[in-house]
Write a structure and sequence with these properties.
The protein is α/β, with parallel strands linked by helices. Helices cover 36% and strands 26% of the residues. A nine-stranded mixed beta sheet has the order 5-4-1-8-9-10-11-12-13, with helices on both faces. A hairpin with a 5-residue loop joins strand 11 and strand 12. The radius of gyration is 18 Å and the shape is globular. The protein starts with a helix and ends with a helix.
Length: 320
């Protein structure tokens, strides 16, 4: 079944829109070092906008709640997101400039990123309240931490009250209140973020199911029962306390591709998970679909323009 055919409810993404100012270089600079670049591009980005576009390109019925400046970057972002089929009726203008991300990408496709919030910093619980029409209709509410914690908490509460699955991407990492953790139905983290959240190390790639099961128990002690831990080129692991004993840890193998730009791959993963959860998939199945979507997104430069459509993901799943 295709993502478009299976999607039964709306995905609401609440958060950030950024203009990505990307410089390509042979290697990333060390502190205090200057290196020569070999290309520059301005692309639409921001974790939430990326997740919304990724989900829409995969067939999701998506609404985005956010803020942009009254400037060319804001117009570019709205056009890109709307062009992917995302409802932008709850993306408002702001007197602050549109948020930006300054990104360096090396020859292996690895990157480092600095963000400036701009208009994203003005998004508030009042914006969530004004989006009640789409929040009340949500099957999945997708959140990250590029906007204020109070706004994320308000969106998580609205999603919970609507009976939606609240998907929280704990990135960029910050400590969150216990109330937000309790509202998160699914937590999506990388290994570093998982360790920071738990306050202790987590197993690495190649660790046993028993080791990961211990980590699952520690998450459950914090009130989170379903977790996706991404491991970069080593795939991901699903920790699901709702599953039957013996099935609470699932390893998702990586999809092998030639990566040219990993910027936004995590957002492609999140958007794909949201689509499949909205379609009623089990978390492990959603993660397997998302693994392919994220890998394919790294095979082209840029973020939103690189995201695959459902047919491409399904073709790859059929041959994997």
């Amino acid at each position: 079944m295709s993502a478009a055919a299976g999607t039964s409810g709306r995905i609401v993404v609440v958060g950030s829109l950024n203009a990505d100012l990307t410089i390509y270089c042979e290697r990333l600079p060390q502190p205090g070092e200057t290196v020569h670049g070999n290309g520059f591009a301005v692309n639409p980005g921001g974790k939430s906008a990326n997740q919304a576009v990724a989900a829409a390109r995969l067939g999701g019925h998506v609404s985005l709640v956010g803020a942009v400046g009254e400037d060319p970057n804001g117009a570019m972002l709205e056009a890109s997101v709307a062009g992917a089929g995302v409802d932008v009726s709850h993306v408002r203008g702001s007197s602050e400039p549109t948020g930006v991300a300054v990104i360096a990408v090396d020859a292996r496709g690895e990157n480092n990123i600095i963000i400036s919030a701009g208009a994203n910093g003005t998004l508030s619980p009042a914006d969530v309240a004004r989006a009640a029409d789409v929040m009340d209709d949500a099957a999945v509410v997708s959140l990250c931490l590029e906007v204020s914690t109070e706004t994320v908490l308000a969106a998580a509460q609205a999603g919970h009250d609507a009976g939606a699955t609240v998907l929280l991407n704990l990135s960029p990492y910050a400590e969150i209140p216990s109330a937000l953790a309790e509202l998160a139905d699914v937590l999506l983290v990388n290994a570093h973020e998982a360790a920071l959240f738990l306050g202790s190390s987590v197993p690495g790639a190649g660790a046993s199911a028993a080791d990961w099961d211990a980590a699952r128990s520690r998450f459950a002690d914090r009130g989170i029962r379903q977790i996706l831990v991404t491991l970069g080129s080593n795939g991901s692991v699903v920790l699901d306390s709702h599953a039957a004993p013996g099935s609470q840890v699932t390893f998702v193998q990586p999809t092998q591709v030639h990566a040219v730009d990993t910027t936004g791959a995590g957002d492609a993963f999140t958007g794909a998970v949201a689509v499949r959860l909205a379609a009623g998939d089990a978390l492990a199945d959603a993660a397997a679909f998302a693994s392919v979507a994220a890998a394919l997104a790294t095979t082209r430069k840029g973020t939103q323009a690189a995201y695959p459509e459902a047919a491409g993901v399904e073709r790859r799943l059929g041959t994997s």
